[in-house]
Amino acid sequence: MTSSTFDFARARADFPILSTEVRGNPLTYLDNGATSQKPASVIEAIKRYYSSENSNIHRGVHYLSERATDAYEAARAKTANFLGAPDQDEIIFVRGATEGINLVAHGFIETVLNEGDEILITHMEHHANIVPWQIAAEKTGAVLKVVPVLDNGELDLNTYKSMLSDKTKIVSIVHVSNTLGTINPVEEIIEQAHKLGVPVLLDACQSVPHMPVDISKLDCDFLVFSGHKLFGPTGIGVLWGKREWLEKFPPYQSGGDMIERVDFEGTTYKDIPGKLEAGTPNIEGVIGLSAAIDYVNEMDRTGALAHENALLKDATAKLSAIEGLRIIGTSVEKASILSFVIDEIHPHDIGTFLDADGVAVRAGHHCTQPLLKRFGVPATARASFAFYNNFEDVDRLVDSVVKMQRFFK
């Protein structure tokens, strides 16, 4: 079975870990929604940095420091170009999307939110896009409002439009649900918010690895993603924000490298991005993220997406045919994420049984407890695909599920 002209076999060979065997079975890695695997080029870039460039950045005048600084700032420019951002200084390197959202929430606590203001999120948000806004509401007296999700896993857009008002101070929304796979119509969501002058934060963790995301076209006000889902290292992420917002925010953390001058009488801060990047950053992570962006830029993204969609279609059809199995999230527009439950078998048992066959899926609430409560389940098993997966992976997943059902019956 083929999906497109995309050469997934060649792409698969770029990822050393995919040749691993698990208990005598070939690794079937279907946990890409949690973290993606890393191509050899990313691994080599990190090794090269520590072998020949390792030094602290910005403050040194020696050769190694200049090399590391140049690589770090080149990665900033590359990331801006990757996202279609007009100004590289609007790229803030953070530990991950979680820190990026917390940074924005902190900025709104300090500069925007007052008692009675409203923060708008959705029922399908990751905990990282719920809890920071709950804290913001608690600290300022603002009110957190939640856009409902329909039975098929799509947002209730009519209700969303009715919830927007002059009290709304920010909309913070996921682009692609990490549990349902739903691709939200963010262009329309942003347009509706902007009609009332409301800024929008976009959680692009699950979209950036699978599809082009162009800030210049979306016109969101903030965007976050994590490097480890984009085939890069853990512990590195990106916050992009419009300059007028980032300049308005006070420092999120304070310390070295974010200052112009320090006296005991007072301190002056750098302009962005320095003001929001205190201390020694994750230089290795930025170097690895830069290599990951190079890797993604060089691939046939259209072909890769078509291949992932074909995998999703195949897996959906085969899993749906299994008696007692129910897929959670059936929206028309979906990324390559499949969450499912099976009658009388706990998702943790599903994950454990599949692992015995070398099939790696996620089992649990996926940091979306309110969403799963909405669908009346405490947890699901989740298979999430990347371009380096193939149709044999789908068949191993399905075969293992069928085998498990026989065992439990």
Describe the 3D structure:
The protein folds into two domains: 8-30 and 300-408, Aspartate Aminotransferase, domain 1, CATH 3.90.1150.10; 43-297, Type I PLP-dependent aspartate aminotransferase-like (Major domain) (Aspartate Aminotransferase, domain 2). The longest helix is centred in the N-terminal third of the chain and has 21 residues, at 63-83. It is α/β, with parallel strands linked by helices. The strands form five sheets. The protein has a seven-stranded mixed sheet with strand order 4-10-9-8-7-5-6, with helices on both faces. It has a four-stranded antiparallel sheet with strand order 13-14-17-16, with helices on one face. The chain starts with 7 loop residues before the first helix and ends with a helix. The protein has helices at residues 8-13, 40-52, 63-83, 97-111, 131-140, 157-163, 186-195, 215-218, 243-248, 283-298, 301-320, 347-356, 369-374, 391-408, and strands spanning 21-22, 25-26, 28-29, 91-94, 118-122, 143-147, 168-174, 200-203, 222-226, 237-241, 259-263, 266-269, 325-328, 337-342, 359-360, 362-364, 380-384. It is built from 14 helices and 17 strands.
